[in-house]
Amino acid sequence: MKIQVNEQVVEVADNTNIERLLLQLDKPLMGSAVAVNQEVITRSQWESYIINEGDNISLFQAIAGG
Amino acid sequence: MLFEDMQSKDQLVIGDKSFTSRLFTGTGKFNDQQTMVAALKASQSELVTMALKRVDMQHQDDDILAPLIKNGMNLLPNTSGARNAKEAVFAAELAREALQTNWVKLEIHPDPKYLLPDPIETLKAAEMLANKGFIVLPYIHADPVLCKHLEAVGCAAVMPLGAPIGSNKGIKTADFLEIIIEQANVPVIVDAGLGSPSHAALAMEMGADAVLVNTAIAVAGDPVAMSEAFAKAVQAGRQAYLSGLGGQSTQAVASSPLTAFLEASL
Known about the structure:
The structure holds 2 protein chains of 2 kinds. By secondary structure, chain A is mostly beta strands. Chain A has one domain (2-61): Roll (Ubiquitin-like (UB roll)), CATH 3.10.20. Helix content of chain A is 11%, strand content 38%. Chain A is built from 1 helix and 5 strands. Chain A has one helix spanning 18-24; strands at residues 2-5, 8-11, 32-36, 39-41, 56-64. In chain A, strand 3 (32-36) and strand 4 form a beta hairpin. By secondary structure, chain B is α/β, with parallel strands linked by helices. Chain B has a single domain (3-265), classed as Alpha-Beta Barrel (TIM Barrel). Helix content of chain B is 41%, strand content 15%. Chain B has helices at 3-8, 33-43, 65-70, 85-99, 119-131, 144-152, 174-183, 197-205, 215-218, 223-243, 261-265; strands spanning 12-14, 17-19, 23-26, 47-54, 74-77, 103-106, 135-140, 159-160, 189-191, 210-213. Chain B has a 5-stranded parallel sheet. Chain B has a 3-stranded parallel sheet with strand order 6-7-8. In chain B, a hairpin with a 2-residue loop joins strand 1 (12-14) and strand 2 (17-19). In chain B, helix 4 packs across helix 5. The A-B interface holds A 5-6, 8, 25-28, 30-35, 38, 40-43, 58-66 and B 26-30, 36, 49-57, 60-61, 63-66, 69, 75, 77-78, 80, 90, 93-95, 97-100, 165-166, 212, 214-215.
């Protein structure tokens, strides 16, 4: 199925959870944060949250800053 | 009292953490990761700021987190980029997940030219975040009234500016920082604009509890050496404050006896 990740269309398998999505996108688990349809998904939900078709996913990452 | 003896009895407590070093540092603007880590180590800083950004799907960013964690630094994510309270709360919630800390440096500066903090949105966001259990350290103008409001809504510290972010202009807000420090019941961390070690020392002599420095270290010719210079300045300023600075006077006050012994012997 197709979902949007940071405005890009990404194809994922059914029953993909957040953790699996990050691994598929080759993004580090530490330092990442995820929102689905503008709702922050806490780390404790990354395994249980199953991505739905059409979900709009925003992916953030810790970077250097002052 | 010597500094080592003084420092051991002079821990800075903010929220659930205590700090020996009163120099907090930022991680932005360094040329490379190796220099950043070396400079942060030289600073002896125990709290370092980080930012959050939307991932660029085309490029892989450097992992700067691993070396910071490896070196045992506490992380203070900021909400830089947020233009209002709603965005700042969203950014803080994301940062909490990314870095697994409920500490947040609350920054809301809608104007990119001067990056001055929006006091109304900051106060709104501070109250919301404190109610959600965050340890909130708000970046604000040197406004004593605002500081009291922020304290009242549950901020763990206040971070008034010396001058605009990255300007290196030093402490342009001294008179108001003095009022803030006098009135505060939470730690006062002078943030932004400190461009040289003497600026940091002055803030500490004035009684600030800590300072946050980023640009002045990161853009220095030798960031590692500059970092160490800031660490020494912060220590000297703190020691001077604790030692009790002498008062100022308009007229000269002699340091040597003014007896006319030369005349008498001639």
